[in-house]
């Protein structure tokens, strides 16, 4: 039961943070052609999990409970891959195939690049 509460509490916090961060991006970018809020949240989440994962692997900084709370709970609630799938599908469904392909490319390249950057940053902290 403790593990469920850790993941659930982290998921709640991550989801609230995702809502706030995505909303902030959409307030800044008033007429988006692509789902920039989702992109920003995914890239930031990938950077954060790459950084913390690097610290965890190299310095064993996180206990099992902390990993449940942070990696599965907070990061799982914060990143929005399911939203990415839905929004990309909607672009394709609406005939915006180039934008859908662009969204897929940006999400994958920027997300994987951010995980790599987080891993690299964790080596210097």
What's the structural blueprint in terms of helices and strands?
Blueprint: H1 2-28, H2 36-59, H3 64-78, H4 81-93, H5 97-122
Helix pairs in contact: 1-2, 1-3, 2-5, 4-5
What is this entry, summarized?
It is built from five helices and no strands. It has 125 residues and is an all-alpha fold.
Task: Give an overview of the whole structure.
The protein is an all-alpha fold. It has one domain. It is 84% helix and 0% strand. It contains five helices and no strands. The longest helix is centred in the N-terminal third of the chain and has 27 residues, at 2-28. The N and C termini lie far apart (34 Å). The mean pLDDT is 94.
Q: Which descriptors apply to this entry?
A:
84% helix, mainly alpha, globular, 125 residues
Strand content: under 5%
Question: Which regions contain 5 or more consecutive residues with pLDDT less than 50?
Answer: none
Helix content: over 70%
Major beta sheet, specifics? none
**Average pLDDT rating:** 94
For the record, give the distance between the C-alpha atoms at the N and C termini, rounded to a whole number.
34 Å
Q: Radius of gyration, Cα only, in angstroms?
A: 16 Å
Q: Into how many domains do the coordinates divide?
A: 1
Number of strands: 0
Number of helices: 5
Structural class: mainly alpha
């Amino acid at each position: 039961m403790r593990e469920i509460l850790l993941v659930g509490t982290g998921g709640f916090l991550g989801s609230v943070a995702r809502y706030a961060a995505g909303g902030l991006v959409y307030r800044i970018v008033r007429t988006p052609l692509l789902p920039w809020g989702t992109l920003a949240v995914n890239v930031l989440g990938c950077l954060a999990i790459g950084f913390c994962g690097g610290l965890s692997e190299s310095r064993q900084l996180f206990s099992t409970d902390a990993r449940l709370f942070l990696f599965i709970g907070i990061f799982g609630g914060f990143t929005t891959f399911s939203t990415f799938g839905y929004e990309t599908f909607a672009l394709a469904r609406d005939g915006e195939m180039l934008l859908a392909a662009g969204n897929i490319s940006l999400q994958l390249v920027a997300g994987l690049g951010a995980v790599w950057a987080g891993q690299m940053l964790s080596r210097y902290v």
